[in-house]
Amino acid sequence: MQLKLKTSEFKEMVAKATKGASVDNNFYISQLMSITLHDNVLELITTDMTNYLYVKKDKVAGDDFSVVVPVDKFSKLISKLTCEDVVLEVVEKDDELAKLVVKGNGKYEIELPYDEEGDLVEFPDPAEGCDVTDWSETEINLSTVHLILSTAKAALMTSNEAPCYTGYYCGDRIVATDTFKICGIDVQMFDEPKLIPVELMDLLELMTEEKIKVLYNEDTFIFSTKGVEVFGHVLEGIEEFQIEPISALLDEKFGSSCKVEKSTLMQMIDRIALFVDVFDKNSVYLTFTKEGLEVSSKKDSGAEIIPYKESTKFKPYTCCLDIELFKTQVKASPSDVVEILYGKEGSIKFVDGNTKQILALADDDREENEDDEE
To answer: What is the set of domains in the chain, with CATH numbers?
Structure first.
């Protein structure tokens, strides 16, 4: 059983498919990659045990071929080949374990995995057995996925303190939050709200076509384009996601706003951060003045003002903000100009088109310090 492929094309497919393998020591199948050619369609499959990634290419010449290989060693070998073509051949002998022989710049042998019963491992394909007749169907844009990953991902909870907030709420709008920061994107993905796990959303970035077909039922998704398909499950706990109060915060009106240049603001934050230590509780002061936005450390050992590019309904305002949260949200802004809405107690808002980001304020202890001094 042999398969001959263009090295450059196969390299690209293998590199992409490798991103779907978690290579978890607790789950052997996550350390493997399935390679099949059937009816001239080449398909690579990998998994993290929850999501399955399918990388496909049609019109590939050759007889039917199938092998399951260790993803780590195989992908590293293919990435280092410089030859024009690569040949894969499964060699089985009566007195030896089966091997995959890779012929490229040289000849390389990779031992193939066996199961507990002594048979070659067969890779599971959950999508193949799905009857999608009664599933719902919709279409999403790859540009929306990119927007989610560049803005909303920074707002996700990274611990399991409240598992529902580790994923994206996708209903009449897309929402991510860790309860300290919130990102909302006014794009509807599904008629009924769904929670999408972060790992599943990450895999969608591997697609290259703008239109992504989505088939889904109560607990399963199949996202597909011509060259890439992703099979995964919804994240449980949507009933615990406090979407109503979160949406109310996203829609809340603020009295004043300003616009500043993103790159200038990022550079200023980086400089001020040098003067923030653990005794400052990792926080800085933001002061909206007539001249511009001032950011200063709590000890007044570092302070800068940057001019507004635009100011609307200006009113003097000052607040305290965690500098890392501040930096994360500014960095996540997709535009070159950051619009900041302020004037409310407890939070400030960043707005960019249909994307809104809310950042909770830190405790402002200046009044306490003044009382102590007295």
So the answer is: 2-111 (3.10.150.10), 136-241 (3.10.150.10), 252-373 (3.10.150.10)
